[in-house]
Every structure is written in C-alpha cells, then in structure tokens.
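Let us begin with a simple case.
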Amino acid sequence: MTRLDELLYEMTRYDDKDVRRIQHFLKVHEFARLIGLAENLDPYTQEVLEAAAIVQDIGIHKAEEKYGRNTGKYQEMEGPGEARTMLTALSWPQEVIDRVCYLVGHHHTYDNIDGMDYQILVEADFLVNLFEDGSTPDMHAEKRIYPEFPDGGRKTPVPPDVRERRKRKINRLDPMVPGGNDD
C-alpha cells in the first residue's frame, strides 16, 4: 500500500461507523485527485493535496464532543491536531504534515488562498458539499457558486472557461466517460 492508501484506511477507521463522513472524504479526495492531475501538479503538491483532502474534516468529531457543533470554524480549530496525530503515527514527513495541517486548519477560510493545493481542496469540498446539501443548478441561476474574494486576495473565483477546461481534462481521465482515458 502507498502512504495515501494507508491514510485512507486509517481515516476510514477513525470515522468508524460514520458512513456519511467516510463517503464525504472519499468524494472530496477523488475530486481533488482528479483536479490536481488535470492541473499537472508536481508530485509533492499532489500528495499534499490528496492527504489534506482525506483528512480535511477530521476535526468534526472532536468539535461535536467539545462544542456540541461542527461548524467550519470549529473544524478548523480542532482538525489540525487530530490530523497531525494521525499523520505522525503513519510516519509522514514533517514538511508534509505541517502543510496538511495548515490546509485542514483553513479549508473553510476562503480569502488569502496561498497555493494550488489550497485552491483545489476548497473547490473539491465545494463540489461535494453542493451535492450533499441538496443543491440544484436552478438554485444558483442568479448567484455565483464560488464566494467573492476580497480585491486584495491572491485567488479569485475560477472563471467559467477554466472550469470548462478542467471538466474536459477530468473527463479525458475518466474511463467511465465516453472517450475518456484515451491515452
């Protein structure tokens, strides 16, 4: 097994019988993985992105225990410590652990996005949350799906042409899409 496979296994054990949360992180991981591949991330950034996508909501159980709620801010407060414990136990490199914990501690903060790993993690989580929260296309006809970032922010919402280009790249990678995986 690869390190990412071991992390997927441990995160599944961590969430135990919470099937909804297991399915959530599996979907976020897969979207993040595919978008990262479509964007040709370097191997280090791709691994950091995938690890962060797997453990991004690891703070939920602790937040519920401690505060009786699991809002994004509480997840960001409680998640990094839990992620650090799991990644350290699996002997991940300290540099990777530090970046993953940073991403876990900020994945519900949408200003000052400072890297492609952060940007893609936010996008993948949005995609899954839109579906899980029962969102439909007609609900977004008059409003943006992505939040507005402050004028001074490092990243802006992904323009429609970039989203379409990513969709085409992802479809080419997907063997279940007609014409996909046509290496």
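The second case is a distinct protein. As before, the sequence precedes its structure tokens.
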Amino acid sequence: MSQELPVHNSGNGLGSHPNHQTDIVTHFVDTSPMKDMTSPQQIREIMQLDFSELNYSRFPTITEAIKLIEDSQALCMSAKLRLHKFASNRKDVLEALPKDDRAKDLKDLDLRHDTLPIQRSLGTFWGIESDTLGFRIELKDNPLSRRGILSTISSVYDPLGIVSPVILGRKLILQELCRQNVDWDDHVPDEILHRWERWRNELPLLEDVNIQRCFKPPGFGKVVQTEVHSFSDARQSGIGQVSHLRVVNENKDVHVSFLMSKARVGPIQPMSIPRMELTAAVVSVNVTAMLERELDYTSIQSAYYTDSEVVIAYIHNDARRFHVYVGNRVQHIRDHTSPEQWHHVPGKDNPADEAPRSLTASQVLDNRRWFYGPHFLWKDNVPLLNPVQLIQLPMNDVEVRAKVLTTACLTPLEPIELLVYIRRTSSWYKAKASVAWMRRAIVNLQSAISTRRALYSNEVCPVKATNTSKGDQRTELPLLKVQELVV
C-alpha cells in the first residue's frame, strides 16, 4: 500500500528563496528538543520538505503514515511551524487527522460515504479516490492566430509527457506557421486552420487519459528487481522517447508501468534520419539518468532500445572516426552508458514510435503499448545486456570521416658550391668545422660593414660618391681587409 501525503505550510513566512528555507529547516531540526526522540527517517522527511509548495511522502502501512505525520507535526510545532493541509489516498489516514489539518477540499467530506475528490497537485490532477494522475481541459475562446494557438497548447500541462504524442502534433502546427512567416496576430491560413480545429475538438478526450500514480499494483509485495527500459525513435517531423519501469517481486511476478516521455519537433532545416535517431538516443540517455536519480529505488538497472541499426553501429564503433555532430553525441552516450546496454528492437515493438507520429487524443486512449510497454517486457527473462554486436558500420557511411592520405615528392636540386666543398672533406667533423668558420666569417663581415658604414656616414673618413645609371648617388666604402673578418 502506498500513501500520498501532500503537505505544505500556511502563513509561517517561509515563502522565500529555497536556500533560505533549507537553512531555516536545518536550524530548527538541529535545535529542536524533540530531535533525540525523532527517528532518522522522520528527520529525513522533514529536511526534504519545501514549506512553500506541496510535498509528497509514501509509506508501506497506514500505521507508519499516521505515526510519521504526528511526529513531524510535533517536531515542527516545537519551532512554531505548523504542518497541515494533508491529503491521502487512504481514508483511514484522513480519519486519524483533525479536520483543520486536512486539505481544504477534504475538510467537510463524510469520509464514510463521500468519494474523495480530484485535487490539483503541482500542476497535475490527482484523482485521490482512484490514485491516478490525469488531466482537466478548459478550452477558452482564444483568437485563431499564432498567439491564440500557442495559448491553447500551453494550457495542457503535461510534465511527465503522458500525452506527448498529442502535444507534438500541435507544436508541428506552430512550426509550420513559423516556416510560413505568419505573424503572432495574423489569421491562420485555411489549410492549417482545418488541422487545428480537428485537434482542438478532440482535446477534451484527454480527460479520459489517466495513469496509476503508484508504480506497482496493490498487494504486489516486496520488489526485488527494478529496471528502467527506455525506447527512442525519430522521423523527419520530430523525435521521441519513452521510459517504462519494470519491477519483479519475490514470486517472479512482473509489472510494467509508464514513467516518462519526451517528444520534440524536428528542426526547420532538414536533417538526416540517422542524425535524428542519434539525437533521440541522447534524449533517452538524459531522461533515464534523471529517473535513476529521482526514483526512490536502490540498484536500478537500465536498458536502452532503438529501431535504428545505424545508431547501434555508431555506439558500438571503436575503430572509425565520425564528423563532429555525430562524434559528440556518440561520446555523450558512451560516457553515460555502455554499448552492451543498447538493444535493437523492431519498429512494431518500439513504443517510442508513437511519440514523433503526432497521434490524436482518441488514438492515445486505446494505445496499450504506449502506457504498458511492449509485450516482451512482461516476460520472465528480459536481457539487460547485449554483449554481441551483429550490426557492422557501412564503409560508405556519410558520417564517417574520410581518411586523408598525404604524399610528398622531392625534386632533386642542382648541387651548390657549398655541398661540393663539403663532399671534398674527409670527415663529418671537418665538414662541421668548415661550415662553422664560414658562418663566423659571414657574421663578422656583416658587423664590419655596419660599423664602417656608421663611421663614414658621420664623416669620420672621406668617402667617394658614385653616380648610378638611374641618377642616384651611392656611397663607395673602402675595401675590407682580411684582418677585419677574423676576430
């Protein structure tokens, strides 16, 4: 049994920066006289509370839930903080609480006869009685313009991506308006307006879509194995990803539930399908990493699936280099996963195929593969590692960087006098000595010329001026003596 207890603080002045709230809660827990009488689990629950928002906890039994509520209230009351507005999917927990400590819409209910209502929690709608998450659609008369379409699409809040295939289709309409340079308040073209009206008329059907909040059914027992299976797919219109949680109990019973999905429109500039598939794989890796951090399970194992053989070959490649776009994404995937975690799955068994297809609300309602995963996840033995790679990277793949072979051809030069002179020497040592003396003579010659030119320019000695053919005058210096070259 799982309990859901939204808790928030009323009028205690903690609606400030999260870091300030953390400092305040840490201080009162450390200084509370009841700290020694509070269990470590209760202290952890208090430390995780955000007193300006709703907070959730879950417990295996009703007794533990009630006990933690009472102890947490007492601990907070010692610091003049009041925990209230509780809600739970079990009426036994609510009956144990005073009416003033219940959520606003639960205070006046007759818990023995009335049905628990649907509560808005963190932007989503939680059916307390059925313990499901769903949607409430309120259509407004927005103008038939790009601005009005964006307002209608944004009114459907879906942080888990439960109906991401439906939302993606409407984002494609916005992309088409951008491609046609339609301004924010211009009237929508007729061919796009018909598509928009069909989608808007089906939007209320999303109220029939709901998923179980708890990842395991009642009476499932102790979970001994937890796995996250993530699927990705892409097409020219967009990319999609969906993750499912597979749990196994002590009796080897299996249950698969929907975790999260992401769907994004493709770029306006066309991109190759292998690149789109690889981008979808990167999104799948990022979402799975976030789920592993947030899920309150230990020893979570992950497996990844794609119906693109090219992507599998890219990930398993060790010998060939890619262009920058593909190389960066392959490296990101290999930094966070191992090639053995990646599996090729046929398109008919890939639930992520629904995400970039732009489904209607009625199509999502009847899509069991989307919410419960492919049939092979429900079998007893599902391989998590795939050590055998049967897919080879094509030699002519356009994403593989071509090898450039550079050759140089040296043309023999005419021998110069210095080389002729060196060849006449009897040893390498004498040749080096000769070259050294030549270099020394050149340096001395240059120095002597500079010195004599400076002296004669200052009229230290008389010089003779000669006329050239072009009419300019040049200074003729006396000849150098051998003693001036040898220092």
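The chain has a mean pLDDT of 82. The longest strand covers residues 223-235.
Keep these points in mind for the review questions at the end of the chapter.
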